[in-house]
């Protein structure tokens, strides 16, 4: 019985050692990443990708990066990457066809 308790105690101590090693490695990596995000210049900051993606969209951001890397326009067919349903192709709002006139009382 004592040998089983010793083995489980050793296993737990090894697991705690591995947990501490992983925790310290993750802590150091996160610290370096946060320090880099804080200290990098605005034009070189990796965090700037988040607001840029929100403003431009992921598809356009990737196309911009491809153009910047190659220095030439990307070769894709002309037109919008957005596919509209047949009902929305007219792109008109029915309420714009009618003039609002308040009722006279």
TrEMBL record:
It comes from the Bacteria. This is Uncharacterized protein.
């Amino acid at each position: 019985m004592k040998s089983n308790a010793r083995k489980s105690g050793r296993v737990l101590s090894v697991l705690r050692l591995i947990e501490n090693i992983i925790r310290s490695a993750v802590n150091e990596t996160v610290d370096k990443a946060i320090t880099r995000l804080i200290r990098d210049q605005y034009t070189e900051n990796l965090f700037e990708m988040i607001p840029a993606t929100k403003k431009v969209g992921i598809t356009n951001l990737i196309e911009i990066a491809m153009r910047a890397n190659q220095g030439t326009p990307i070769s894709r067919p002309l037109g919008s990457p957005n596919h509209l349903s047949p009902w929305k192709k007219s792109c008109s709002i029915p309420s714009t066809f009618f003039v609002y006139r308040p009722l006279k009382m």
